[in-house]
Write a structure and sequence with these properties.
With about 110 residues, the chain is α+β, with helices and mostly antiparallel strands. Helix content is about 25%, strand content about 25%. The chain has 3 helices and 4 strands. It is globular.
Length: about 110
């Protein structure tokens, strides 16, 4: 079955207040229900991106670079029968899509 990379991305101009502790607790309860519902499709539940280092054979340009973690809040990998099912699974994930963020679903092509 195909796999899909789901990237949480902040939406431009979104400036909503942070969730309260009670709202966070409710969101995590719904997240656990979602995770249980789609457990057979969640290849990697992923997480937030942390520190990174660009590695190459040559030094990078001497200029500020955009880091991936500035563009991507987190990731997960889902297994689905097709693109539409992957989008349905990702869209149902509490906390992934909201006033401040959306999800980009990308098919992982393997040889």
């Amino acid at each position: 079955m195909p796999k899909y990379l789901c990237l949480q991305r902040p939406l431009p101009g979104a400036n909503e207040p942070q969730l309260s502790p009670g709202e966070m607790q409710s969101m995590y309860a719904r997240f656990n229900e979602w995770r249980e519902q789609f457990q057979n499709h969640l290849t990697d539940v992923g997480g937030r991106l942390g520190g990174a280092r660009l590695v190459g054979t040559q030094a990078g340009p001497d200029a500020p670079l955009v880091e991936v973690k500035e563009l991507v809040g987190g990731y997960m990998i889902v297994t689905a029968s097709d693109f539409d099912e992957a989008i349905r699974i990702a869209s149902a994930c509490p906390g992934l899509i909201g006033p401040r963020s959306g999800v980009e679903v990308i098919e992982i092509q393997t040889p």
